[in-house]
Amino acid sequence: MCDLFCDHLNSVKIPVGSWKSPEQGEYRTRDGRAYFTFNFVKTGFLFARYEIDIVSQPSYGNRSQDLFITRRLHSDRGGYKVDLDDEESQASSLDNAKKRAGEWAEYTWNYICGGEDCPVTVITEATRNQINSGISEVIKHQEMQIFQKAFDEMCNTVGKKPAETGGILLGTRRDYSVQKFIFDPHGSRTAGGYDPDVNYLNKVIKKEWETNQLELVGFLHSHPRGVSRLSGDWGNNIGDLGYIKAIFGAIPALDRFLVPIMYSSYDGGERVIFPYIAPRNNPQNYQKAPRIINEHGQELHV
After folding, report:
1. Same domain, 147 and 271
2. How would you label 36-67 residue by residue, b for 16+ Cβ within 10 Å and e otherwise?
3. Do residue 122 and residue 15 come from a single domain?
4. Is 186 exposed, middle or buried (0-12, 13-18, 19+ CB in 10 A)?
5. In the chain, pLDDT over 70 holds for what percent of residues?
6. Whether 127 and 154 share a structural domain
7. pLDDT of 46-78, one tens digit each?
């Protein structure tokens, strides 16, 4: 694996501390490490006001997600919106809404990084270690949630084909739930290796974000029976761990990456899935999720 997946937010370079474009609600923090996406919803008839829906943001990790602490409110459109600390929580203009959304993004990223006392533009090594260790601890106990339709698609494609095929896992980075699986029909495979067709899959990532607000959260591929662990880092983005490290380098907004391995039933054996989750700070310390559940909390079995 040499070529890399692109993040949906990085198809156009976003300068630090600013927006993708005047019309679009994609914001990059001042330290360049996090991306937020907002939807500015116009309300009112005589006087335009704007509510700020939160479309995507970095995970809170092990920090409290209390709405008061995180300055969020439930949105009428589902999910959450920014709490603007006034009676109606509405901005007076689009420019004002973008200004307030940027301020909220910086506050939120600062909070994720260790609290309000942590300078937004200066993240110390100690703070970074605290964040990463917190994420690693969360991952140890994180169930892998895969929507039923996505799970069935995984089993009916990768789960029935020869070893060394795969596809991408799309969902939300709020909780890293997998809402959709896209099989890679054009990737090249050998008996001991698989290279995804990143040109095809990157187009899918971009389209799924633009149409469904789904983000890249992981990658599923199959191994020959008996090889139940991820392969190592062999340099030049080769090997499972090498590729995962390169993806983390290319997509700063990821704090973890779902990397399940599957045994296919193609060889006549049982279909098996190993639901691994790799933390950003230490991918080689990937963890096996205790179980896989669907969107209704029901345990899934292959």
Report:
1. yes
2. bbbbbbeeeeeeebbbbbbbbbbbbbebeeee
3. yes
4. exposed
5. 80
6. no
7. 566 788 999 988 888 777 888 888 899 999 898
Q: Which residue's entry shows tokens 């997946």?
A: 5
The boundaries of the domain holding residue 197 are 141-293
Per-residue tokens: 188: 């090249």
Whole-structure pTM over 0.70, yes or no?
A: no
Task: List the beta bridge partners of residue 65.
Answer: none
* Closest-CA residue to 143 (of 291, 272, 285, 273): 291
How far lies 85's CA from each of 70, 81, 106, 125, in Å? 12, 12, 16, 33
Domain tally, the chain: 2
List the structure tokens of 29.
Answer: 């923090």
Domain with 172 in it: what CATH number? Answer: 3.40.140.10
The string of pLDDT tens digits covering residues 188-237 is 887 778 888 988 998 999 899 888 889 999 999 999 999 999 998 877 76
